[in-house]
Design goal:
single chain, 220 residues, little secondary structure, 1 helix
Length: 220
Amino acid sequence: MGITPGFAPVEAHADCNDDGGPFVDWKNCRKRNLIMDNSNFSSADFTRVDFSASDLRNSNFTNANFYKTNLMRASIAGSNAKDANFQSVLGSRTDFSRGNYEGANFAKAEINRSNFSNSNLKNANLSKADFSRVNFFNANMEGVNLYASNLSRANLTEVIIDEKFNLTNAFLFRTNIEGLDLSMVKLEQWQINLSCGNKNTILPDNLTKPAHWPCSSEEG
């Protein structure tokens, strides 16, 4: 009895006209100025999508893939992006505020002048990324990995941290750490010398507060 040849499985492919929803595949699609707030995009594939200036607030992005996605001037504020992949994402002036990014991967992201205030970033990977001028005010950053990231002029005031908060080799030029308890964090004196703290900033015992604290105001 002969063997009937099997059919090769059909590989899923992106269709930019597909409706948004869980598991949607929009790889490489252009979705500028999209208005799809309060949507369910769980496990969606947004690899290299252009979402610039889009409104995606209050949506479900759990396990979604934003690899190399353009989120410039977009908003995903108030969204749940637990365990999502934002590796190498582009996000200048993007609103990430009030979101849940627990366990998310932002490694090598290029994000600046953006807003993560009041967000949950617990155990997120923010390593080797550009977060210059980003506002992290009152964010939960317990267990966050910021190894070798650029935090120049970022705002870390009132963030929640723990002993796993990693700032190893992070660039802290004029980073606002006023009032922050960093006593349990591994830091080097050169990082502190670049940063902006005040009398309420607590450092590890082996480091000293620079004479220029608190920093003077600076434009730009």
